[in-house]
C-alpha cells in the first residue's frame, strides 16, 4: 500500500513538472520563503543584493534616488524560481524578505526605516523624503555599507514637508550632484525668484496702498466712497500683477 502511495505521489509530481516546466525549485536555502523570477538583466555587473529598475525590455541596476522605475532585488538561491535560467537572466524578487546592498550616505539605517535606491549603482539608502521606496529595513546597518535584510514592498511614500533651511539646502545640493541637472536647477531657481518676487512686491504694494487709503479717509471723511473705490481698483491691479508673475514662473517651469 505504501509503495503504491509513493508511486502515485511521484507520478503526480512528475506530471506537474511536465505540465509546468517554467517552475524550477532550488535545492539550496529552501527555508527562506523567497519566490523569484528569472528575468533578463541588461546590466552585466548586476549581482545578488543589487536593486534593479526597469529599462525598456530588460532590467538594470538602479542609479538614482527614489527611482520610480524600481522593480526588485537580484537574489541568489531562492526557494522557488519562475521561468528558465539563461546566461542573460538573474532571479529577481519584487516582494518579500531579501538581502539588499545599502550604504549610510543618506543617514544611518535602523530597523523600521524605509529603504530606497541611491546614486550608487544597485545600492540602497535611507529614505528621508517623499518618493518611491523599495521596502522597510528589518535590521540595523552596521558600518557605512553592507547588506541588510529588507522586506521588499515597492510603493510611493509621502513624507510631510518640513519647511526649514537645512532641508532646502539638502534638496538643492542633491540636485547638483549630476552636472546635467544644473540647467534645470537654474530654471527652477529663476522661476522661484520671479514668482516669489511678484508675490512679495504685490503684498508690499497692497499694504502701502491700504495704509495710505486709511490715512486719506481719516483726513477727508467726506471722500470715503471715492477713496474706497480707488483702493478697490488698486487692489485689483496688484492682484493681476501678482498673478501674472506667478503665471510667468509656472510658464518657465513647464515650457523652458
Question: What would you say this structure looks like, in words?
Answer:
The strands form two sheets. The protein has a seven-stranded mixed sheet, with no helix packed on it. A five-stranded antiparallel sheet has the order 8-12-11-9-10, with no helix packed on it. It is of the alpha+beta class and 256 residues long. It contains four helices and twelve strands, in the order H-E-E-E-E-E-E-E-E-E-E-E-E-H-H-H.
Task: List strands and helices in order, with pairings.
Layout: H1 2-19, E1 23-25, E2 35-40, E3 51-55, E4 58-61, E5 70-74, E6 80-82, E7 89-93, E8 95-103, E9 114-117, E10 124-126, E11 131-137, E12 145-157, H2 165-175, H3 182-219, H4 224-255
Parallel strand pairs: 2-6
Antiparallel strand pairs: 1-6, 2-7, 3-4, 3-5, 5-7, 8-12, 9-10, 9-11, 11-12
